[in-house]
Amino acid sequence: MRPNQKSVAAILGLAILSAAPSAVWGANKEWVGTSSGTWTTGSNWLGFDATEPAAGDSVTFSSVLLPVIRTSVTLNQNRTIASLDVFSPHFIVGPYSFTRSSGAVLTVSHGARFGGENSTTSLNSFSMTSNTLRVESSVTLAIAGSSVISTTGGMTMENSSVLNLSGGSLNLAANSVHNMWKTSTMNVNGGTLNLGANSTLNVNENATLNFSGGYNVTNSTLLRAQGGGDIVGASFIDVGNGGTGFLTAFGAGSSITAQSNVSDWGRGAGSNAVVEFYAGTTSAVSALRVGTVDSQATMRVRGGALTVNSTLEAGGGTASRTVNLTVQDSGTLTLNGTSTFNNQADLDFSSGTLNINQNATVNEGARIDRTGGTMNIASGRKLIVNGGVYADTTTGGQILSSGASIEVKGPFARFGVAQYFDIGNGSLLVESSAQYNSPASAITTDWASATGTVTTATVRSNGRINMGVLRIANSGGATVNVLSNGRIETTGLTVGGTGTSNAIINLNGGFVTVFGIANLGSGAQMTLNDPVGNNTALGQVTQFLVDGTLNMTGNAALFTEGESPAIVVDALSMTGNSRILMQPGAEISINYGAASAPLNTIRGYILSGFNNGAWNGSSGISSSAAQLDARLGVGYVNFPDAQFGSMTVKLTLQGDADLSGAVGFPDLLALARNYNGTGRFWADGDFNYDGNVGFSDLLALARNYNQSLSLEESASLGESFASDWSLARSLVPEPSIITSLLGTSAVLLGRRRRSPGA
Fold first, then answer.
1. β-strands 464-472, 487-495: how paired?
2. What is the rounded distance in angstroms from the CA atom of residue 412 to the CA atom of residue 389?
3. Shortest CA distance to 194 belongs to which of 237, 158, 150, 225?
4. Separation of alpha carbons 702 and 717, rounded Å
5. How many CB atoms lie under 10 A from the CB of residue 163?
């Protein structure tokens, strides 16, 4: 009964018949506190029979102008009533305060209501069980001490009401819906809020639920901020830690905040957490663990925004429990601390934005699946796929954030993209048998496309990159390292090509394979370095394989170093000042197949590098080693076949017609057969690239006779050469050859002994 419903008789304190109890509700009892503050003293009650309330009675603690003497009430025995209305404060003696003695409990079979605008009611070590609990507008209900306040039905907090739970417990009924409306506030500061099984607490319409410490949403309950409501934990907010729990932010302006310590959303075997953030919500937590220690967890950012300010750990159990994290419906997940995705953790990213502002690691058994949206990795930060999986099936591709890095490592690590994954000012590392894959049909991938960008990509230790067309340093700068059995395989390769391009590609015991056309343009520099011992000790080969045409233009350069680097192409085209520098052991294989052998073309490239009889290294196929040692030359041999024709180009000794690495009788015989011939090539004895076989070629062979690339000279050179030449002469008797030899052999041998290598 509200104050304006009081009869004049009641105001005057008269017991009249109209106040007699009804058949359903019993009497209406109003507290006046005449004799004491004790509940069981009948004279403290104003009613039909001036006795304490009985079961079925409605009880009112009024704020109207009644002669209320005491507002401090003590329940000293268990009592049951139908309903409780408290309107506080009293205009004379202040707000009502309830306590108890002897463990007494008040049972309210229908409902308890606390009203009185701008009033406060205190429950201090009080115990009450009520069907419903209602805190009306602009009212404060304080629960303190060892109070135990329980409901068997729903709780409602109205506009601007406040519930301070500083001690004891507030136990809200199972299988019920509890609501905090509009700007109401519940402060859990020292007391305990218990939600019954399968119950829901809605924090609605700019209401706020504050926890001074941590809180665990469990027992299959749902805690929901909606319509602008806020749930704030000064420490952690756990969900399903040791049980099952549901946490939701729904509706524009709603939020969930855990300000410090680690929040666990699903932790421990048998645990299950479901956390969802819908459109218009903005939430933040400090450190977060999701689905750890064999628990099951689902976290969905469904159009809302969630920020994790410190570390994130997801998954990690040994059992096959699912840990699903989802960003969808244009949601935003921001990870400001180090993030780790462990076994069974799966982040599905279909739209919206994923911001990685510290290093994020995807370990074995975990994965990130991206089907849409935008992923931003902050400058200086890394996405590390460490035995896990990153699968990107978007049709629009991805551009790595400026200054960010991707690392893929471990034998089970897979980084897969359906389209391009461009790298500008960033880096890529693939190592330890990990794989980076994109289909052959993918749009061209760019590394350092724009002017001013700088990219570093490293593939090593059996790491592998398989992709469609790759373009390196179209206008920017890039360093690509392929080391220790690392592999890059593409369907097409373009390196450099503009005035601002600066591309350095280092192969050191690694492979670059192009299943198509490879273009090395201006600003491109590739070095094949095959250190001595790599092949034997590590089984490594340094190889640049083009299953198509290698086009070199502008000032593109290809250098060879070390033991046996190999360049294998179907065709070779060199224009401008492009160049290939050969070193001992390096080899170019041209597998021209059923086409015509490009003998004249290759000799032309070599002649460009051997300009005016000197190895200038400025264009064509050249050699700095040959520039330092006149006994060396770049040889080329054709191996014709109707279907599988090929050519080999190597740096070797002049006179090594068959590219065996040594100069001996077979080479002498080849020269003898073609002596004084025109239209000839290296294998015929043309060692100075003029197309003829003559005295200068014979002189070059004689200088290196019985030598190998180790440059060890035979002690019996003169006798051996003369004897072998006699044999060659008998096999190919040509008087002109004999005459030339007899007139010059002594001179040749004399010069050789005086100046080896001259």
1. parallel
2. 8
3. 150
4. 9
5. 25
The one-letter amino acid code at 270 reads G
13-19, Cβ contacts within 8 angstroms, sequence gap of 24 or more: 13/46, 13/66, 13/67, 15/46, 15/47, 15/48, 15/49, 15/50, 16/48, 17/48, 19/47, 19/48
CB atoms within 10 A of CB 587: 18
Quick check: 537 and 560 in contact, CB under 8 A?
Answer: no
- Distance, C-alpha 529 to centroid of its chain: 33
Identify each DSSP E strand in 518-564 by its residue range.
518-520, 524-530, 543-552, 557-562
**Cβ 519 vs Cβ 494: under 8 Å:** yes
Q: How far is CA 361 from CA 2, 338, 492, in A?
A: 62, 8, 31
List beta partners, residue 662.
708
Residue 386 amino acid letter: N
pLDDT in tens, 694-727: 999 999 999 999 999 864 444 344 456 666 666 6
Residue with tokens 């003898």, as numbered in its chain: 672
Whole-angstrom CA distances from 415 to 56, 90, 338, 359 are: 71, 71, 20, 16
Six token digits for residue 122 = 């205190």
What pTM does this model have? 0.88
pLDDT tens digits, 396-419: 899 999 999 999 999 999 999 999
282 C-beta neighbours (distance < 10 Å), count: 18
DSSP secondary structure string for all residues of 295-306: -EEEEEEEBSEE
The reply to whether omega before 53 is within 30° of 0 (cis) is no
Spatial distance between the Cα atoms of 165 and 145, rounded to a whole number of angstroms:
9
CA atoms within 13 A on the CB side of 607: 14
Neighbours of 735 (CB within 10 A): 8
Rg, C-alpha atoms of the chain: 45
Pair of tokens at residue 751: 């010069």
In whole angstroms, what is the distance from residue 237 CA to residue 225 CA?
13
Closest of 290, 310, 407, 413 to residue 357, by C-alpha: 310
Strands (E), 47-96: 58-61, 72-75, 79-87
> What is the C-alpha to C-alpha distance for residues 496 and 576, in angstroms, rounded to an integer?
14
CA–CA dist 9, 21 (Å, integer): 16
| Residue found under tokens 């015509």 | 596
Q: At what angle do helices 665-674 and 717-731 cross, to 10 degrees?
A: 40
- Series of mean pLDDT values for 10-residue runs along the chain (758 residues): 34 33 65 93 85 94 74 97 87 83 97 91 97 97 98 98 98 98 97 98 98 97 98 98 97 97 95 97 98 95 98 88 93 98 95 97 96 95 98 92 97 96 97 97 96 97 97 98 96 97 96 98 96 59 96 97 94 97 94 97 96 88 93 96 96 96 95 96 96 94 90 46 65 50 43 34
CB-based contact 182:206 (threshold 8 Å): yes
